[in-house]
Design goal:
Strand order of the largest sheet: 4-3-2-14-13-12-11-10
Number of helices: 11
Strand content: 15-25%
Radius of gyration: 21 Å
Structural class: alpha+beta
CATH topology of the largest domain: Beta-lactamase
Shape: globular
CATH superfamily of the largest domain: DD-peptidase/beta-lactamase superfamily
Order of helices and strands: EHEEEHEEHHHHHEHEEHHEEEEEH
CATH architecture of the largest domain: 3-Layer(aba) Sandwich
Number of domains: 2
């Protein structure tokens, strides 16, 4: 049985041809939707809506899996794995925050530890500070000493003062990232995997920070640096550590940082040109072992693997008798870690879903209340997504978790994330 592969931020996912639901090995035990308080007729709308998007060439294809109360109640695949080759999308197509919290539980790190404890180059960093030049009506930059060192908690909640060259408006930071190979605008976005781990640390530490640590939320290379901290604290390469502590225990056999040759035909292929922007799609090449295992981009996985991971989170850190993290640790990760002291020009919800109403925890966006956000959901739900189109959320109140996997790095991603959330919640009928 084949499984299709996609790319993601925490890890990716891919899709492959598979037999009918009744004949295939599912990631969780199945149950009739009505048994867990959902309507099958309403869940069927998911496939109808996404099929229409694929039929009208706005989306190459998609795989969706939905679970409630620990049971798989919906899975569907529409469109194409490879539109140009005419390959149909099929069911069951081929993580650093959790990894870091495993080390915290092991006693090898604390959230308040400075990053320099593990990687000394990050001591005594400077911040690129902008100031208005009234005489020449322009903005100039200088550097000042950081108010404090960045911590492990800062990396987990993206308040370390780091940035992405693709996103930041701070010119000296963008320039330093470009010169250091951390940002390659003419090649592809969000890909610094050509650097070795040592080179990554050296180049990033030499670049100025965009903000004083602990003052500003900005999605950034923090997840990649978190991977380097995991390596320093564990003594293992990131891929090996995650494989030993997460992937193998959960039976995530199709999740890795590189795609083996025998699985190459299972990788989901995006449109050559994005229908929404008209720009060419340039995704990371996952066919070779990278120079560094990127905690922020470049891994691959299947929808089945991904759902097992999210169900583990919903279960409070365990699945099928295997415990990855404790329930209190999951609760800590899914709490508000920004509060009122940390600023954000673009909040996590606005970045991911195009709507306010979400703060950030330790690796996830976290919903603050039932209202405000212009999309279905519950207070305390948490979620995140990948650049290439993967998306998941966990809703403890409704006991729901769902995974959407597409290979469509498009400005339309927020639209599809909102769409799948609304379609899942409208099917709840208890």
């Amino acid at each position: 049985m084949k499984r299709m592969l996609f790319g993601a931020a925490l890890f990716g996912a891919a899709v492959v041809v598979a037999p009918a639901w009744a004949d295939m090995k599912t990631p969780l035990a199945t149950a009739p939707a009505e048994q867990v308080g959902m309507s099958k007729q309403r869940l069927d709308r998911i496939q109808e809506v996404f099929k229409k998007e694929a039929d009208e060439n706005r989306l190459p294809g998609a795989v969706v899996m939905v679970a409630r109360k620990g049971k798989l109640v919906h899975m569907s695949a529409v469109g194409f794995q490879d539109k140009d080759a005419g390959k149909a999308m099929a069911l069951d197509s081929v993580l650093v925050s959790v990894g870091m919290m495993i080390l915290v539980e092991d006693g090898k790190a604390q959230l308040t530890d400075p990053v320099s404890k593990f990687i000394p180059a990050f001591k005594n960093q400077r911040v690129s500070a902008a100031k208005a030049d009234a005489e020449f009506a322009r903005v100039t930059y200088g550097t000042v000493a950081a108010d404090r060192e960045m911590t492990v908690q800062d990396l987990l909640r993206h308040t370390a003062g780091l940035a992405y060259g693709e996103i930041t408006a701070n010119a000296p930071v963008k320039d330093a990232y470009t010169k250091g190979g951390l940002y390659s605008p003419t090649v592809r976005d969000f890909d610094s995997r050509a650097l070795t781990p040592a080179e990554f640390n050296e180049k990033l530490a030499a670049a100025p920070l965009a903000h004083h640590p602990g003052t500003y939320w900005e999605y950034s290379l923090a997840s990649d640096l978190l991977g380097r901290v995991i390596e320093a604290a564990s003594g293992q390469r990131l891929a090996a550590f995650l494989d030993e502590r997460i992937f193998k225990p959960l039976g995530m056999n199709d999740t890795a940082f590189a795609l083996s040759a025998d699985k190459g035909g299972r990788l989901a292929i995006p449109f050559a040109t994005d229908p929404a922007s008209g720009l060419p799609n340039k995704l990371i090449d996952v066919s070779a072992v990278p120079g560094n295992d990127s905690g922020g981009a470049g891994a691959v996985s299947t929808a089945s693997d991904y759902l097992r991971f999210t169900q583990m989170l919903l279960n409070g850190g365990q699945l099928d008798g295997v415990r990855i993290l404790s329930r209190p640790t999951i609760q800590l990760m899914a709490s508000d870690h920004l509060g009122t002291r940390i600023q954000a020009a673009l909040t996590p919800g606005e970045l991911l879903l195009g709507t306010p109403g979400y703060t950030f925890g330790l690796g996830f966006a976290v919903r603050q209340g039932a209202g405000v956000a212009g999309v279905h959901g519950s207070q305390g739900e948490y979620l995140w997504a990948g650049y290439a189109g993967t998306f998941f959320w966990v809703d403890p109140k409704e006991e729901v978790t769902a995974v959407l996997m597409t290979q469509a790095p498009s400005p339309a991603r927020a639209f599809y994330r909102r769409m799948i959330k609304n379609l899942v919640y409208q099917a709840i009928n208890d």
